[in-house]
Amino acid sequence: MTAAVLVRVAAALDLVARPIILAGLWVGRLTSWLVLPIIAVVLLTVVMNAMGLNELGRWQEPIFMLGRALTINSVIDMQWHLYGLLMLFGATYALHTNSHVRVDFIYERFSPRTRLVVELIGHLLLLIPFCWIVSEMNWPQVRMSFVSGEQSNYGGLTHRFLIKGALPVALGFLALNAFARCLSTVAALLDPTRLEKEKYYVR
């Protein structure tokens, strides 16, 4: 293939990858705002513990996720629900900004082209299969939780299937973004000038 053809193929791959990467960054930035309600919920838990409060309110008709009362156990459940969503959906942002954990003392010694090859192999053989396997294993639990109406056993939040379902959804989204990074990596391998024109990772 001629250089001109390789450049066109690289441009086409980047055209497909870019919207997915932008969506991953947008979701990551949006998810980062969950830090604020997490802080508020943790503070509320501390105050309720200090004041010896077990309930903040009770009502007749059940409310979505809360049931018939807002208890300290509900607030504790909110903590790990929100934190779980932050970690799960924030993973795509970490992927695209290169802020995830890696063995840097080895990776940093590689040439730019070798790094791209390592990225491609890692995403195709490790990250994407991992996301798919865990998602497949988790869906039966989500269905069982939905059918059984699973909720907290100690007066916490209801509708447990929602937080369980967040895992396969988030991993599926992460796998899609990893695939987009693969397309972007192949584009950079075909057209190395892309690494000079724009950063491979977003900051």
TrEMBL record:
Domain Tripartite ATP-independent periplasmic transporters DctQ component, residue spans: 72-185
Transmembrane segments: 6-27, 34-53, 78-95, 116-135
Chief location of this protein within or outside the cell: membrane
Subcellular location: Cell inner membrane
InterPro entries: DctQ, TRAP_DctQ
Membrane topology (UniProt): Multi-pass membrane protein
Pfam name, any one: DctQ
UniProt entry keywords in alphabetical sequence: Cell inner membrane, Cell membrane, Membrane, Transmembrane, Transmembrane helix, Transport
Protein family: Belongs to the TRAP transporter small permease family.
Assembly, per entry: The complex comprises the extracytoplasmic solute receptor protein and the two transmembrane proteins.
Function: Part of the tripartite ATP-independent periplasmic (TRAP) transport system.
Protein name: TRAP transporter small permease protein
Natural source organism: Saccharospirillum mangrovi
